[in-house]
Structure formats: structure tokens, C-alpha cells
Amino acid sequence: MRSFGFAVAPEQSAGFMRAVTLLGPRSMEDIRQAALATLAPPPDRRQEFEALFRAHFHGDGSVAVEGDGEEETAVKDDGAAREDSVEARREEQGGELASAREQLSARQFVSDEDRLVAFRHALPGALPARRSFRTVRTPSRGAVDLRRSLKEIVRADGDVPCPLLRRRQSVPRRLLMLIDVSGSMKLHTADYLKLAHAVVQAAHGAEVLTFGTRLTRITPSLRLRDRDQALARAASLVDDWDGGTRIGPTLLAFLSVPRFAAFARGAAVVILSDGLERGGHAEMETAVRRLAARAFRLSLATPLAGDPRFKPETAALKTILPLLDDLVDGSSIESLTRFMLSLKGPPAFVSAPSTTLRVVPPP
């Protein structure tokens, strides 16, 4: 159901399995009723759910996705990576080639020397922190630990030279990377994936997803320590390399899956994209607004900002500009690593209600 765009939480999947176990099942109708009760497909997609159920359990053939004429965004999680890998079918370059047309292909990465060792060592200490509800012992500047203090009083027959203190622990915030793999970003996706591998290896809880015409979570693949193996597995998982661009629908699909949307709550979210959305940009504005409300810091790194003459002249970029905390140069690994190591500092770009954008290089 997730591959056909249904928002199904892990708790719903577990509830469905428990319901089937409880019912027996005695018939396929019991399974269908259990699926309706626990997976809760939307009423407007009931016919699509019925067709999907018949195709899966009765083998009635392929499922034709019904809708209002617009394509549904497929969501893919890295559960089991395929071993086969197919080279990209055609070559595209330039932002003007961004489109909403889906093209499925695979990608292979060429190994080069690791320029990210220093970045991996520095990243954990460079992430913004939050106060955890857990507490740790501290010799000073904390609250009185009443329980430990009372134990020490009893142990010392009522004599405690100084009270024992605790303070709330500070933990790094989650780092979430959303990488555009459409045709207009073809020259940069290889570097972005190498950077993403370094982030996942260095930062605990970091998450990486790719989007173009589909949405794919590749974090488990990037947890492999060997970078070449990790990128090869991620390349075999993503189906929409160098295809069209549907930024708004894919970001909305990300927010519609509860487990994915939780990745953005209180996190530093970095979107690596040129922001070239074809067609209407209402969905993109809605998605970015919802992301900004969830995230601690929302940043857009665009390779177009590598040109000093760059200005956000598209309607989509002008619309989302007030929602961003940062708009930075994403044209190279060096500029991106500098920016990520400055996430503790002030925003690299503070939006203002003006028509001219000034891109401030990160410190």
C-alpha cells in the first residue's frame, strides 16, 4: 500500500497482523474487513484499495491506479536493496531541462579519494543541540538532586557537606537531508550522495531521502562503512535518477507518512535542490510551509547560488523564500561542508520582504 501512495504507519501494519491472527482467518472477507478497520484507506481511494487487495490476495493482475488524472507519488523505503544495477539511459544537463515527466533509471558511482574525513570528525560537535529530558550528574550549576542527597544524608548520619546536583543533558539535533535526483541536478547528485554517506556515518540519527518523481529512503544503505558499497546499494534502490521534477508532491508524500514526518520534528532539515518546480507551485509552498513548522531549521542548498548573479526569479522560489532559514551555495562539496559545520551559528541568509536576494556565504 505504501508503494501506491497510501499513508500506512508501522502501528497500523502491526494492528492488521494482530487482527488477522485474532480472526483465524476463516475467509478472505475476514482479511479484507481487518484491512479496512486497521489500515483505514481514505474513502476517496476505496476503489483503489479494493483493486490492490484483489491483485495481492486473489492474483487478479496489475493494479490500475485511479485518480483525478494526476500521478501519485511512490514512496519507497530501503527494506531490501537489489543487487542489479543499470546505467543511466540518457544524459541531461542544465536546469532548463527540469520537468514533471517520470523517467526510471539507475545510477553507478565512481570511487574517488575521500575528501570528507575531516568533515566527519567535526560534524557531531557542529550540530545544533537541544535540551533532553534526561539529566546527568554535575558538580555545579544544576538543580538539587533530592533523591541522591537524601540517600547521602542517611548514609552520613545527617551530615552532607554540599547538596548533590543534576542538570538536563544536551543532545545534538537530528540532521535530515532531502536530495533532489532529477535530471536538472544530474551533475551534482553523485557529490551529494558522497556527502550524505559521510553525514550518516558521523551523525547519530541522521536521515537521508531522495526525491524526483518518487520518494526513497536510503539511510540504511548509507550505514555501510564502505562508501563504494553504500553508494552502489543506494543506486540500486533509487528508481527515478535523472528523471522529472515533482518537488511539491514528493515533499507532501514525505509528510503524509507519519514515520517520515517524525524525522523532521525538531531537526535541522537541508534540502539539496535547485528548486525548479514545473507547473503550479501551490503544493511546493504547502509542503515547505509544513516542513518549516516542524523543523528547527530549514535550509535550501541550491547549485544555482554558486553563480554570483543568482537571484530567486522563479515564482516557486519567491514564494518559499520567507519560509527558509538559509539559502546557500550547493554547487560543491566544499561549500556544503562549510555550511553544515556552521549550523550552530546564525542563519546564512535571513529572508526579508524584498525582491532582491543576497546570498551570504557561510562562515
UniProtKB/TrEMBL annotation:
Composition skew (Basic and acidic residues), residue ranges: 73-93
Record CDD domains: vWFA
Pfam families tied to this protein: VWA_CoxE
Gene3D superfamilies: von Willebrand factor, type A domain
SUPFAM superfamilies: vWA-like
Region described as Disordered: spans on this chain: 62-100
Recorded superkingdom: Bacteria
Matches recorded under PANTHER family: BLL5662 PROTEIN, BLL5662 PROTEIN-RELATED
Protein known as: VWA containing CoxE family protein
Biological classification of the source: Bacteria, Pseudomonadati, Pseudomonadota, Alphaproteobacteria, Hyphomicrobiales
